[in-house]
Every structure is written in structure tokens, then in C-alpha cells.
């Protein structure tokens, strides 16, 4: 940066736009969070670059990555913004009346989280607990969420991220349909309809390819609108399906399903992410720890 005197205190709106862009990963996400146009964010960043005499961002794909000068400015100002958010909280309603809003994919909510909601309630005390079905796997986290659960490759944007478990999937089937004692399950499986969610039409082929399992194509395919309907159908003996491991853990323990070939690790990760700094919600870490217990593999 230049050695000339700069006036950052006179550029607080521009600093706010800059901080949001670094934290969110790109100008579009920052504009959404601050409820302004992308043009306004770009103008604020240009104002700062002129004031500092240094380029603050470089464009890589759809992301705005901070340059060394931008990273230095972010590290030196982020604590000030964290303090401002704490001040906002101190003048807001008592935390006990503020709901903890947990967003997650609908099937994760129905199969894993809601049945164990009492464990989350135990760590947030008297706060109301709210659930939001959000099947978005990428992009900005809604600012109204206290925590969002996602399944994808771990992001490298400077948000608060907490890893829960590696992503694994495998073929599952009801023991009512196929006995665990059968000698050659691969040969028998071709006699049944495979159950597939409409939003993942190639999940069967992906599992066969990634797991290197030798399996002939199924006789027929039955499609369901939602993954949780697919899993209910599998438990009812309608056919085999490919399932993420955390979503069938309880069914496996209770012998409602079994997996002839085990589970295969994928590139993705189950993780929680916050829309702002870690201290935005003081229960983020505690709830993430509880969720880790739900999603971690035995």
C-alpha cells in the first residue's frame, strides 16, 4: 500500500461493502446481504482502492479473492466489524427470546435432525428452535439463519465452517426383500426395481462407477419426488436404493435396511456454516457439536 495518509474512518460504508465481499466470497453475495445493488458494492470497492492506492480484489471464476493488500485490510478491520455486531446484539432483544434457526436439506431434517431435536434444545436452553428445509447446496447463506447444514466440498471462503462428517453413500435394501444371508446379492438385486429420487437421476450409475461394484442394471426404475420418500419406500420393501450413510444409520441399526456392499466415501463433506462471523450466534458452535454427533460415522 502507499505511504501517504489515508482516511478510512471517512470510508466506513465502503469498508462495510469490502468486508462483506471478502467474507461472502463475491460481490453478488455481498450485495444480497447488504440489500444493495452489485453496482453499489463495486463503486464502494473502487472508492477504497483509490483511497488506498492498491488493488483489493482479483477475479477468479465467479469469486472475488482478496489480493495481499485486500487480505491485510480485511484482517486489520474484521475485529472492528465483529465488535459492531456484538453491539447490535446487546441492543437487541434478550437472546432467550431469539429463535435459533437451523436450515438443512429436507431429508436430513426428517431422518436425522428432527428426531433428535431434544439434543439441540438441551444446548440452547430456553431459546425457541426453528427448522427450515433448504436444499440449496451452494451460494450465500440466508442471513436469517443461525446455522445452515450443507453437503458439498468444504468451501474456502472465510465464513464460519464446522466439519461434521465425510460424505458416504451405499446401496441399501430391506431385509424383507433380500436376506443378509444370501450368498450372491449382486445377482439377485437385478430382479428388483431400483428407487431413485427425481433430483438425482444418475445416483445409481454414480455409485456403481465410484464404488467399482460389479452390478448389472436393475430391471426397472421407480422415481420419487423426494429422497425421504425413496428411503421410506426402501424400508417398506419396494426395492433397493442408493442412500447417504447418515440418513439410514438408524434404519441399519434397527434392521429396517441393510447394505450388501458397505459404503463408499465421496468427495463431499457434511458441514455447518454461519452467514456471518462465528460470534453472530453464540450457540453456533454448541449446536454444530451436537450435529456432529448425529452425522459422524460409527
From TrEMBL:
It holds the Pfam family LysR_substrate. Keywords: DNA-binding, Transcription, Transcription regulation. GO terms for molecular function: DNA-binding transcription factor activity; sequence-specific DNA binding. GO terms for biological process: DNA-templated transcription. The keyword Transferase does not apply. InterPro entries: LysR-type_TF_proteobact-type, LysR_HTH_N, LysR_subst-bd, WH-like_DNA-bd_sf, WH_DNA-bd_sf. Residues 15-67 form the HTH lysR-type domain. The keyword Transcription regulation applies. Belongs to the LysR transcriptional regulatory family. This is DNA-binding transcriptional regulator, LysR family. It comes from Pseudovibrio denitrificans.
Amino acid at each position: 500500500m502507499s505511504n501517504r495518509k489515508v482516511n478510512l474512518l471517512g470510508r466506513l460504508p465502503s469498508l462495510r461493502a469490502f468486508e462483506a465481499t471478502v467474507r461472502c466470497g463475491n460481490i453478488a453475495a455481498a450485495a444480497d446481504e447488504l440489500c444493495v445493488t452489485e453496482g453499489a458494492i463495486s463503486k464502494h470497492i473502487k472508492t477504497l482502492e483509490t483511497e488506498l492506492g492498491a488493488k483489493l480484489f482479483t477475479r477468479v471464476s465467479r469469486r472475488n479473492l482478496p489480493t495481499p493488500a485486500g487480505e491485510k485490510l480485511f484482517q486489520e478491520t474484521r475485529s472492528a466489524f465483529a465488535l459492531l455486531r456484538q453491539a447490535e446484539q446487546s441492543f437487541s432483544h434478550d437472546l432467550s427470546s431469539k429463535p435459533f434457526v437451523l436450515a438443512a436439506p429436507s431429508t436430513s431434517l426428517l431422518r436425522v435432525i428432527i428426531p433428535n431435536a431434544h439434543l439441540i434444545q438441551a444446548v440452547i436452553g430456553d431459546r425457541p428452535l426453528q427448522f427450515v428445509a433448504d436444499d440449496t447446496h451452494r451460494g450465500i447463506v440466508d442471513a436469517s439463519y443461525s446455522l445452515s447444514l450443507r453437503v458439498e466440498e468444504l468451501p474456502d471462503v472465510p465464513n464460519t465452517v464446522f466439519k461434521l462428517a465425510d460424505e458416504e453413500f451405499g446401496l441399501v435394501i430391506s431385509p424383507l426383500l433380500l436376506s443378509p444371508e444370501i450368498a450372491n446379492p449382486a445377482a439377485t438385486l437385478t430382479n428388483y426395481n431400483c428407487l431413485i429420487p427425481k433430483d438425482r437421476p444418475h445416483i445409481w450409475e454414480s455409485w456403481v462407477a465410484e464404488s467399482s461394484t460389479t452390478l448389472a442394471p436393475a430391471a426397472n426404475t421407480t422415481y420419487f419426488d423426494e429422497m425421504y420418500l425413496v428411503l421410506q419406500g426402501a424400508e417398506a420393501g419396494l426395492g433397493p436404493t442408493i442412500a447417504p450413510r447418515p440418513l439410514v444409520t438408524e434404519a441399519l441399526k434397527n434392521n429396517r435396511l441393510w447394505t450388501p456392499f458397505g459404503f463408499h466415501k465421496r468427495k463431499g463433506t457434511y458441514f455447518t456454516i454461519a452467514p456471518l462471523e462465528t460470534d453472530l450466534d453464540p450457540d453456533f458452535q454448541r449446536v454444530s457439536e451436537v450435529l456432529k454427533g448425529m452425522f459422524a460415522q460409527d
